[in-house]
Amino acid sequence: MEDRSGLIRPALIAGLLIGMPLVLFLVSLCLGRYQVDPVTAIMVLAAAITEFIPGFPVHISHIWPNVVDTIVLNIRLPRIIAAMLIGAGLSLSGASFQGLFRNPLVSPHILGVASGAGFGAALGILISGSGILVQALAFAFGIIAVGVTYLLARTYRSTPTLVLILAGIIVGSFFSAMISLTKYAADPYDKLPAIVFWLMGSLSSVEVSDIFWVAPLMLICMGILLLIRWRINLLAMGDDEAKALGVNTRQMSQVIIITATIITATAVCISGIIGWVGLVVPHIARMIVGPDYRKILPVSLVIGASYLLIVDDIARTLMAAEIPLGILTAVIGAPVFAYLLRYRNVGWR
Amino acid sequence: MILDIRDAAFSYDNQKNVFEDISFSVDRGECLCILGPNGTGKSTLIRCLINVLPLNNGIISLQGQEISSLSRARVAQQIAYVPQNHDIVFPFSVLDFVLMGRAPHLQVFSSPGKRDEEIAHRALVTVGIEDLALRPISEISGGELQLALIARALAQEPLVMILDEPTSHLDFGNQVRVLHLIERLSVDGMAVIMSSHFPDHSFIVPQRVAIMKDRHFIALGDAREVVTAENLREAYGIDVAITYVEEAKRVACLPVAGSAPTHR
Fold first, then answer.
1. A126, A167, A250, B44: which has the fewest Cβ within 10 Å?
2. SS3 state of residue B192
3. Considering only alpha carbons, which residue of chain A is nearest residue B113?
4. What is the C-alpha to C-alpha distance for residues A230 and A75, in angstroms, rounded to an integer?
């Protein structure tokens, strides 16, 4: 850090990390079949904010057609917010789990939340297809799956993290089988495609009302993880050492498991299953800023939010029909990660 | 007494005790070395002393308070632990690694600040690896990692330091260096408990010695009284000679040639 380039680099990285999501946010508002120019997009947002606050002194007159309001505020904005929240949330949960399990190959789905939620959604589609029921069942079964995993692991006295991973695999494969069962039972012309598309992940059905319950839940959990981020380093020391350093390891792992599970279950129930982000974004963060969780978590948050936003923009603009997100995250992410793996220090051994 | 252990017993399965009837105490400035063959439960005893495992019987009191009644953070403010080996998962810098020793002094939601960094830096200076501060722990030698672990324990600013076989993975020179470092810490007022596989080391630096065998301490006292040919024969099943070596200017403990023909 003595030489000047060593000081410029962190500043440049910090600038990029703050600027990137803001620019992407604005670009995404403009992108789509109906082109909106950036100035209008900003004006639409500003007008909406000033009208939202009662008695705000400045009034911005609507000099654009009403359809622009609808497109920007009701269609694109919720979708963009959802993409950023989910990308940030999955990356933060993944990074926290990698610290908790002392294993860089862990993803937020390791305790079975995705399979559980997938089964819940498939069941919801099979029995009714109502959006609210699908979301509620997906969320509930996501939480149930992790709860069962945790209780299963608690029957053992020692090596809780390894047993937790094993229990997660057991519960995950059980619910995967249950998903197959619902698919097998589903009507192949109507219900089955709906289940398959849901499982591949998409943000096309996100509505403003979704954001109002998703955002607070995710932001609170993400805030908790960010607050304890230095202590996640201590868990990476191993159970005995963390305890000897004064950490209440059981309580701390419960906090991480609960917050990360709520984040992931919330994400899955509005977007379907999106793999890859929670596994790989933390690695990219680790390559850029090193292994310290004080830096990994905020950087994962920014990269995750930006990454999923880019992928979702591609998903909705590249072709006339939507491309499922779960496909794109890996198709775009794999080459990027392969490149980084080849040319950069990975940050773990 | 800073740390006092009375009638301690521990069992993993509530049937067979790993150790029992263990009583001893250490005070400021004292160094106690626990010797004993592999598998006698030295490490288990140490895990009980740092409150990672709960005793089945007996009490451990830290400055008059029973250790199991204290919070983990409260214990860690007073007792620091140096493990036998550390698996590196993520390559933290040596400074960040040592900084983790500040955890028991920080609130749950806070990160270490300037003052903590100064304390960590001072700990690195004490063990003599301050020039490695920014190197990743994955790229330093085993001896340097041992010193970083001791520095992390020092950053806890403890009254008691407990080291599990601190010399086992070190080369010949580093063994002696680490022994002298431990001696210096105890001279400066730290109460030290360590386990070891080298009876001879107890003659290099002044130590009290306990010999553990078949779940008990078979001897406890000054190195000269405890590290005897009889006790070592009983503990390890080999013949040793305890003799003054003129050139080394000290008493040494040496296995006698051909004294252990069969593996035990």
1. A250
2. strand
3. A230
4. 38
Q: Which residues of B touch A239 (CB under 8 A)?
A: 52
For B192, list phi and psi in degrees, rounded to 5.
-120, 135
* A204 token code pair: 């096309």
Task: Indicate whether B18 pLDDT > 90.
Answer: yes
Per residue in A267-312, pLDDT (tens digit) is: 998 999 998 899 989 988 998 888 999 999 999 999 999 999 999 9
Q: How far apart (Å, rounded) are the C-alpha atoms in residues A183 and A121?
A: 11
Q: What is the pLDDT of residues B55-89, one digit of tens each?
A: 999 999 999 999 999 999 999 999 999 999 898 88
**Which H helix or E strand runs over A94?**
helix A77-100
Q: Spell out the residues 6+ positions from residue B90 whose beta carbon is closer than 8 angstroms to its own.
A: A99, A104, A236, A286, A291, A347, A348
What is the rounded (10 degree) CA torsion for B172, B174, B177, B182?
-110
Q: Span A324-347, mean pLDDT? A: 78
The terminus-to-terminus CA distance of chain A in angstroms comes to 24
What residue segments make up the domains of chain B, in order of their start? 3-255
Architecture of the domain whose range is B3-255: 3-Layer(aba) Sandwich (3.40)
Question: Could you give all domains of chain A from N- to C-terminal order, each with its CATH number?
Answer: 84-343 (1.10.3470.10)
- Chain A residues whose C-beta is within 8 A of a chain B C-beta are 1, 99, 102-104, 227-231, 233-234, 236-241, 243-248, 286, 290-292, 294, 347-349
Query: Which 3 state secondary structure label does DSSP give B250?
Result: strand
What does the pLDDT look like over B151-196, one tens digit per residue? Answer: 999 999 999 999 999 999 899 999 999 999 999 999 999 999 999 9
Kindly give, in sequence order, each residue whose CB lies less than 8 Å from that of residue B64, ignoring residues fewer than 6 positions away. none
* Full DSSP string of A197-263: HHHH---TT--HHHHHHHHHHHHHHHHHHHHTHHHHHHHTT-HHHHHHTT--HHHHHHHHHHHHHHH
Amino acid identity, position B28: R
Question: Does the distance separating the beta carbons of B91 and A348 come in below 8 Å?
Answer: yes
Nearest partner of A304 among A11, A13, A21, A12, judged by Cα: A21
Contacts of A227 in chain B (CB under 8 A): 108-109
Predicted TM-score (pTM) of the model is: 0.90
Contacts of A184 (CB under 8 A, 6+ apart): none
Nearest to B108 among A231, A244, A349 (CB): A231
The secondary structure of B77-133 as a DSSP string is: HHEEEE-S----SS--BHHHHHHGGGGGGS-TT----HHHHHHHHHHHHHHT-GGGT
- Strand (E) or helix (H) holding B183: helix B172-187
For residue A246, give the chain B residue with the closest CA: B73
**CB burial of residue A18 (10 Å; 0-12, 13-18, 19+):** exposed
Reported as a pLDDT band with limits 50, 70 and 90, residue A5 is very low
Cα(B93)–Cα(B91) distance, integer angstroms: 6
Return the pLDDT at A3: 42
- Report CA A135 to chain centroid distance, whole Å: 16
Residue B63, min C-alpha distance to chain A (Å): 17
> Number of CB pairs < 8 Å for A and B?
90
Check A231 against B76: CB less than 8 A apart.
Answer: no
CA quadruple B185, B188, B192, B195: dihedral positive or negative? positive
**Neighbour count for residue A47 (Cβ, 10 Å):** 19
